[in-house]
Amino acid sequence: MKNEIRVFNKNKSKDLYRIILNDIEPEHKVCRNCQDIIYYNDVFFRISKQNEIVVEKKSHRLYKTIFGNKYYLSVCEECIKKKYPEYKNRIFNSMNYITKYAFNIPDDIFEKWKKENIGVTLERLVRLYGDKDGKRRWEKYCNRQSYTNKFEYKKLRYGWNEKDFESFNKSRSITLSNLISKHGEDVGTKMWNDYLEKQSLTKSAEYYINKYGEDKWKELNKNKAQTLENFIKRYGDDKALFEYKKYLKKRRCFPASKSSQLFFSILDKYLSNKYTTYFYQKNGKEYAKLLSNGRYVYLDYFIKELNLDIEYNGDVFHANPSIYKKDDKPNPFTNETSEEMWNKDNEKIKLLEKDYNIKTMVIWESDLPDVQELLKKIENYV
After folding, report:
1. Cβ(188)–Cβ(180) under 8 Å?
2. Would the CA dihedral through 89, 94, 96, 99 be positive or negative?
3. Alpha helix (H) ranges present in 276-370?
4. Long-range interactions of 150-158: CB distance < 8 A, separation 24+
5. What are the φ and ψ backbone dihedral angles of 227, each rounded to 5 degrees?
6. Rounded distance, CA 217 to CA 374, Å?
């Protein structure tokens, strides 16, 4: 057997390894996929001073202890390479998706371990340092991250220009091209598809509210809103206004009917001499607001001085109640009933008033008021 060991240590033959291991450890574990020996190319044998055969790099005995339970390495190197071409060598120090697969760690155990041990989170810092000190450390970390991710820091630390900063941010984003560039076409495409599947779940309101609560969901949507306040958080005071104006020029509003824009342009001729701050699509932009239910809505014609919204409702897309019954489904692009559409519109009107004290007038496509008539209503509103 000593001769076989010398040959194996020199040539690393899997067949010879199988013979030696079967001889010295007949009850060894096997790969759960191919049912062959758990063989990794870095294994070798040595003869001890007591003339015993010793296995170094004992892959078939390797295990991970997680929450008091042992999970043994149960896949051979050949099977790992087939499933994960990006695998390099037998180093399982880091707890990643390859380690999870190699040791057959259950999904729920793996996710729990990651949450408690990977990354800087408020929960982890509180657990390690207590409530008061943990929250202090978390706030300090967040402030530091906010600063180091800004262009000013990158410019000062690395001498970057704006083009460098933009390229850096693009390279960090999870895109199909970035994943293929880092991991190759096959693995990158698989990772992209997995990412899309996970995003479709975790980005849903139902998932987020169940996991973090409704208040967190509202806060998330508020922070994501394209407001000047949020632009200041992202870019700082000096650059925020420039970026916000650039965003407003590019912003795409919801499609608006030609008839609504024609009506508003006529109305505009009368109102523009009286009010200075008003918004509608043909004028450049629709006014937008984030409601307390997490919904981001656009106002058809908003007069800021009056805090008044004039909604032009198309008969089909808003289900004119003088034409459609509550169970009808007039909109060809959705499966909503008329009643569901009415409820959504009514909720928008109520929340605009509740959240922002914005009053709403509704006019219907097939029953448009005369412009002079509408002007009188606006004057009476004032």
Report:
1. yes
2. positive
3. 338-356
4. 150/235, 150/236, 151/235, 151/239, 152/236
5. -115, 160
6. 39
Kind and range of the H or E run holding 191: helix 185-202
Pairing of strands 308-313, 359-364: parallel
Asked if 189 and 86 touch (Cβ cutoff 8 Å), the reply is no
Residue 313, amino acid: N
Query: Which pair of structure tokens corresponds to residue 10?
Result: 């020199």
Read off the pLDDT of each residue in 340-361 and give the average, rounded to a whole number: 94
DSSP structural state of residue 42:
T
CB-CB contact of 347 with 293 (8 Å): yes
Domains of the chain with bracketed CATH: 1-113 (no CATH), 119-161 (no CATH), 204-248 (no CATH), 252-381 (3.40.960)
Torsional class of 307: left (φ above 0), alpha (ψ -120 to 50), beta (otherwise):
left
- pTM of the prediction? 0.39
In angstroms, the Cα distances linking 74 to 60, 65, 66, 311 are 7, 14, 16, 64
How many C-beta neighbours within 10 Å does residue 171 have? 12
Listed in sequence order, the residues at least 6 apart from 217 whose beta carbon sits closer than 8 Å to its beta carbon are: 205, 208, 209, 294
**Closest to 120 measured CA to CA, from 138, 140, 96, 135:** 138
Confidence of residue 347 (pLDDT cuts 50, 70, 90): very high
Judge whether residue 205 has pLDDT over 70.
Answer: no
Amino acid residing at 237: D
Q: 21: closest CA among 52, 60, 51?
A: 60
